[in-house]
Amino acid sequence: MSNIKNRRWVLAAYPDGMPGEGTFRMEEDLALPDLADGEILVEARFLSVDPYMRGRISPAKSYAPSIEPGQLMVGGGVGVVVESRSGEFAAGDIVETMGFGWQAFAVLDAGTVSRVDPSLAPIESSLGWLGMPGRTAYFGLFHVADIQPSEVVVISAAAGAVGQVAGQLAKAHGCRTIAIASSRAKLDWCAEIGYDAGINYRSVPDLAAAIGEACPGGVDVYFDNTSGAIQDAVMMNLALGARIALCGTISQAASFGEPDIGPRLNRNLLINRARMQGFLVTDFAEHYDAANQALAKARDDGKLKFREDVMDGIENMPKAFLKLLNSENFGKQLIKI
Amino acid sequence: MSNIKNRRWVLAAYPDGMPGEGTFRMEEDLALPDLADGEILVEARFLSVDPYMRGRISPAKSYAPSIEPGQLMVGGGVGVVVESRSGEFAAGDIVETMGFGWQAFAVLDAGTVSRVDPSLAPIESSLGWLGMPGRTAYFGLFHVADIQPSEVVVISAAAGAVGQVAGQLAKAHGCRTIAIASSRAKLDWCAEIGYDAGINYRSVPDLAAAIGEACPGGVDVYFDNTSGAIQDAVMMNLALGARIALCGTISQAASFGEPDIGPRLNRNLLINRARMQGFLVTDFAEHYDAANQALAKARDDGKLKFREDVMDGIENMPKAFLKLLNSENFGKQLIKI
């Protein structure tokens, strides 16, 4: 097709422990296939890196098949239609999909993408507060944890793509919100967007005690983006009837497939009649419209700010991903092409 | 009051690790107080020992206050009214209460006991299948795990007071039921009462693999009476949308207050969008009548057998309790007075 050449990142090898830059390999000067009926060619404007990608580059069983070495890295992206053989889209349209891949151009089935209206919000919002991370926050709070006004809600990775939306939606719902994050700067941002309190898990001597101080009546809802030792500390402070919405396990990034070891804290669930529940945003696909409307309304009402951490150039995707795994990003991590 | 003398067991000291006989102390030749208005004097016929008592003899936080050294041991009992200053009960009536205590006679507020009709079932049933353990099984299955016909239900301590009822109720509901127990003899009994398969966790080389073999499509519901390593093995075999009804943590009997260490398996909840929920029978007090009716119907339909392990003599209560903590009981552990 034409003379456009593609660039893409493939998985080089499953990482042993924390991924490194050698985990990925760039392929360049790739010819693009001709479009079949119903397909569109899309040029990336923004690509997304997200914690879930850690699970895909492990041979361990997960909710989606592993990427095989040599295969294109998965990932969401938003871009502009360059050529179309679909009646749905014309050149110049903006579309978004979770299935873009780490590449400059993608040939996509028109049925698998969503139209993005650039007059409503910057197009990269479709990868952030108005996309998968924003909806994840919404479903975790309202469909999984069933938050109620005046409840105490603790959120880990509180300044991350999901966490910052969760904190603001919970606050707007009348909850008291506690941020857990990895730096003073992130906690300053959390305070700015309305969290009632914040804890730097890297600097407090006793995280469980710090949570207990911030939540003297216990934690009603824990939006868990990390699991691991942060979850342990929250488990020591559950209120009666607590709910844990288990959204991510990024603390295990270095040990996928070989879980690490920690205290058995089930009795804390028992004595508090608490519930821990895993969920994925895609389980709630039938409610995406409702979620998008709620998110757009929060934004219009001035109750939803969103911070992005944008790095330039597709060549930096592995670097951006490693930043994320090491909690060095500050806000939703994106790559601008 | 009269010349009746009481005997009772008090807590001697909080055990360090697994309780021993020295954990308790018998007090004898105790005078009984005169009855106040509304009180009854009840002579024990059967006293109950149950796993939950382990939590009460630990200073660690639990769902109920700890017993202090020197205080009467808590426990359920059924007995005959000897004297009454209540219009509700007359001498000769049979009554049951969770609040009898480890003692030969109890002075009780008539409002805290339930009448037992000895023509419906042996009176000790009120401590077993038609009492707290039976109702615990019922609520765990139907209110917490929400079992559905044809689902695969795994039950630990499957021959115990709660487990054997849970297995039969789940089977009667159309589920496939898998017993996990500590001996061949217990598993034979499990087969006799209708479990579809059984696993001896003490003799299989790899419990997770054995569960995987017994449940090739995964575990839909785990009725967890033990937690610990058995739960870990079930967590390796969860089906999509699995529910874990967290009923007991008796595997931690030797380490209350200082949780032991195990693999962090939260990711298994996440990828299977599974739920783990702690519960107590007393949370469902408003549904006790419905539970009793369902249990009585199952019994009348010939779908509910119940095995008891009866030891004679109040002097043996600590021995019976230690038997239970070491999985050496076979069925609901009772003391006949």
| Biggest contact | A-B, 36 and 36 residues
C-alpha Rg of chain A (nearest Å): 20 Å
CATH class designation of the largest domain in chain A: Alpha Beta
* Count of structural domains of chain A: 2
Mean pLDDT of chain A: 95
Low-confidence stretches of chain A: none
Task: Give a structural overview.
2 copies of one chain form a homodimer. By secondary structure, chain A is of the alpha/beta class. Chain A is 24% helix and 27% strand. The first copy, chain A, has helices spanning 53-56, 132-144, 161-172, 184-192, 207-214, 228-235, 266-271, 288-300, 317-325, and strands at residues 5-11, 24-31, 39-48, 77-84, 94-97, 105-109, 114-115, 152-156, 176-181, 197-200, 219-224, 238-246, 261-263, 275-278, 308-312, 332-336. In chain A, strands 3, 4, 5, 6, 7, 15 and 16 form a 7-stranded mixed sheet that branches. Chain A has a 6-stranded parallel sheet with strand order 10-9-8-11-12-14, sandwiched between helices. In chain A, helix 3 links the parallel strand 8 and strand 9 (176-181). The two termini of chain A are 21 Å apart. In chain A, 49% of the residues are buried. Strand 13 (261-263) of chain A pairs antiparallel with strand 13 (261-263) of chain B, so a sheet runs across the interface.
